[in-house]
Amino acid sequence: MNKNLFFLSAILFCLTACGDKTDLTKAALIPQPVSVAANGEAFKITNKTVIYITSESDELKQVGQFLSDLLQPATGFSIPIEQAANDPKNGIWLSLTDDKELKSEGYRLSVNKQLIKLQGNTAEGVFHGIQTIRQLLPAAIEAKSIQQESWIIAGGEILDYPEYVYRGGMLDVARHFFSVADVKVYIDLLASYKINTFHWHLSDDQGWRIEIKSWPKLTEIGGSSEVDGGKGGFYTQEEYKDIVAYAAARYITVIPEIDMPGHTNAALASYAELNSDGKATELYTGIKVGFSSLSIKKEITYQFVDDVIRELAAITPGEYIHAGGDESNATKEEDYITFVNKVQAIVLSHGKKMIGWDEMAHASLDKSTIVQYWAREKNAKLAAEQGIKAIFSPAKKAYMDMQYDSITPIGLHWAGYLDIKTSYDWEPTLLEEGLGRENIIGIEAPLWTETIKTLSDIEYMVLPRLLGIAEIGWTPANLRNWDNYKVRLNEYQQRFKIQGFNAYPFINE
Ligand code: TNX
To answer: Do the Cβ atoms of 229 and 176 come closer than 8 Å?
Structure first.
């Protein structure tokens, strides 16, 4: 290229791209914040930058450390965290405040040439603000080795807080087992997009994945299988606690699910006495649903449920336990209702609240119970009539295991193909007539894993659709629109590449 042409194109490039770097309103943030105003300035993180904390809070210090650790690999800087007596004039300043507008999870971020000031009513709010700072930095910040980059953040003010209190991501570890390390990657992904709940589907026909000390064969036998005959696996209670703590450090609550009374073949194969005919079933490695049921009439079934919930409740700090209840086609309707009512009482007796798939709305639900709407809006309405709120996970919009289109190599399509636009461009309060904002506690993206075998498969299915669900859960409806989202999302292709993720190739969808 001739020299003049080179400079001309460099200038042209800068007019379009460099200008954006200092215009905060052009930042590709997901979820989109409640309000963003630019001041034309920019802050540069250097090897002299310090993170200051002005509130006496160990938790805030830990959040500061999280930020320092996040910045370390790509910048190569070891940014110290210091307690400051006075308001800092430069550096990164994290503090707790008392600002009604921010509610419990919100944050306020102010950036000028000298100072990044990040405030929340809670350390959790500040943590969410850190995810925003991360997205404001060049994509190279995601690299695991030192990058030659200018670590600039555009200046201005962001005020931000979530629309829904419940924003979830689910992972089915029963159809295929995923290691502790894989689960942590999934949790990291959720945290990056301000999702605050990890719903962990721990048992199904094909596998039982959590150690229950009083019923050891559940994992010994029931943990040894998975779809297509792989070796399966399970988490010890120590590993479970480790994951719960890992999630908690990222302000994510773990909700464990034991799916009952259907989806229980792994338990039925482990213990003959849980079957109506007293005979243990064979382990199952296919992908059919709706064929298994715990015996509803036997007392031992409720001893079993009580032991499982008791042990699980003891290692679960979150307030909810998910008791499944979907597709119980092998259980008579009246038996199903008896069972759900009993299980609900057991969950409550261990100091937890129950969540169940939408079918549970047929039982007499306690006011504290929540249903998860996935298939039948009629069920969600039945729940609403009982004054019960729903988590929205409509399969036709939010199921991460649905194929993008007919040539997607993995995934199912029983609820239709789910391209990025279809999965993003919907509004929960307008989706089903008769179900409004007051009936919805939040939304969740489930990932079922009949056809998903590896972490790389997980990445392919959730990146980028998970980001869309995260935005629906966080950003008010009037600030969401597909044309604008599409432009922001395109910036993430490069980020995912640097992170080493096997994202679905989505540019210019
Ligand atoms: C339906 S969603 C199921 C799961 C399957 C999923 C596959 C729900 C509550 N039940 O058992 O894995 O479809 O998409």
So the answer is: no
Smallest CA separation from ligand 1 atom 13, residue: 448
- Residue 142 token pair: 């995601």
Query: Helices (H), strands (E): how many in the chain?
Result: 17, 17
Output the pLDDT for position 10.
Answer: 44
Mutation test of ligand 1: which of 199, 327, 418 has the most ligand atoms closer than 8 Å to its C-beta?
Answer: 327
Same domain (yes/no): 488, 386 = yes
Q: What atom in ligand 1 is closest to the CA of residue 399?
A: 14
User: Which residue of 288, 289, 402 sits with most ligand 1 atoms within 8 Å of its CB, as the best mutation to test the pocket?
Assistant: 289
Contact (Cβ atoms closer than 8 angstroms) between residue 52 and residue 120: no
Let me know whether 450 and 323 are in one domain. yes
- The values of phi and psi at residue 92, to 5°, are -110, 120
Crossing angle (nearest 10°) for helices 180-192 and 465-474: 50
| pTM for this entry | 0.96
Residues whose beta carbon lies within 6 Å of some atom of ligand 1:
289, 326-327, 357, 374, 399, 401, 412, 448, 450
Catalytic annotation present for 41: no
Q: Does 2 map to a domain?
A: no
- Crossing angle, helix 333-349 and helix 299-314, to 10 degrees? 40
Question: Is 208 part of any domain?
Answer: yes
Exposed, middle or buried by CB within 10 Å (0-12, 13-18, 19+), for 342? middle
Express each pLDDT in 282-330 by its tens digit: 999 999 999 999 999 999 999 999 999 999 999 999 999 999 999 999 9
Which residue has its alpha carbon closest to ligand 1 atom 2?
374
CATH number for 36: 3.30.379.10
Domain range for 43 is 21-160
Q: Cβ-count burial of 409 within 10 angstroms (0-12 exposed, 13-18 middle, 19+ buried)?
A: exposed
Catalytic residue among 327, 432, 444, 471: 327
CATH number at residue 281: 3.20.20.80
| Helical (H) or strand (E) element with 291 | none
